[in-house]
Design a protein that fits this description.
By secondary structure, the protein is mostly helical. It has helices spanning about 35-45, 60-75, 75-85, 100-120, 140-150, 155-165, 170-175, 185-190, 190-200, 205-230, and strands spanning about 10, 15-20, 20, 95, 130. It contains 10 helices and 5 strands.
């Protein structure tokens, strides 16, 4: 589809209108946003499309995540939250290298503060393992982390979804949501192993392109969360 509209406005319900036609999700639901800031961000994406240009969904991440919040997450919020909660069972931050020493030290420096925050914030015990063999977390820990993500509304869950899935860490996403760490700190933490390997063995163009794509998706989730929470 190419741009056919002249004006983009935000209505009283924080819906987006193109020449007074409401924008709808792929599920044909009116796209109404929960905050003024997010509505403005989504509207700006539609305004950025030049006259006659084709719509590129990749250039409209806030619109895409908002569509997902309504059509996908909103259809069964509890089920969606449960899917994200599963990442707590094998959280990236809990699995450490046993060598070399500099990697072990870097993981500890970046990941231990996040785990310490989660232990204090949710009053839980978190197991840390060396190597790739699975180590179960206590049931109470999983329950409390699950409750923490389940308490988020549909739009917050949509925003946090790429943060959880790209990073492989439920704890990192909760730390972002509660402003216990910055997005930059979390990105450095979840890509620590890849960065270490690149420093040691060199950078592969295909791998770098993949990381850049993940960074865009991660950044979109971060930006949406900022527009939701102020």
């Amino acid at each position: 589809m190419k741009r056919f509209w002249k004006t983009v406005v935000i209505d009283d319900q924080r819906g987006i209108r193109l020449d007074d036609r409401p924008v709808r999700t792929p599920g044909r639901v009116v796209l109404a946003l929960p905050t003024d800031a997010l509505a403005q961000g989504v509207a700006d994406e539609w305004r950025a499309i030049g006259e006659g240009e084709e719509i590129d969904p990749r250039a409209m991440p806030l619109t895409g995540l908002s569509n997902a919040a309504i059509d996908r997450v909103g259809a069964d919020r509890a089920l969606f939250a449960a899917g994200l909660a599963q990442y707590g069972e094998s959280d990236l931050l809990c699995y450490r290298a046993d060598s070399p020493d500099d990697l072990v030290a870097r993981q500890a420096a970046a990941w231990d503060p996040l785990l310490d925050w989660a232990r204090t914030r949710y009053d839980v015990h978190i197991e840390v393992a060396t190597g790739i063999l699975h180590r179960s977390q206590p049931d109470q820990t999983l329950a409390r982390l699950s409750d923490a993500i389940a308490a988020r509304d549909a739009f917050e869950l949509a925003a946090l979804s790429p943060v959880v899935t790209i990073g492989g860490s439920l704890i990192a996403a909760l730390a972002l949501a509660e402003r216990a760490a910055t997005a930059e700190q979390l990105w450095d933490a979840i890509t620590l192993d890849e960065e270490y390997q690149a420093e040691r063995w060199g950078r592969d163009p295909l791998a770098e392109a993949g990381i850049a794509a993940r960074r865009r998706d991660f950044g979109a989730g971060v930006r949406m969360l900022e527009l939701l929470t102020g």
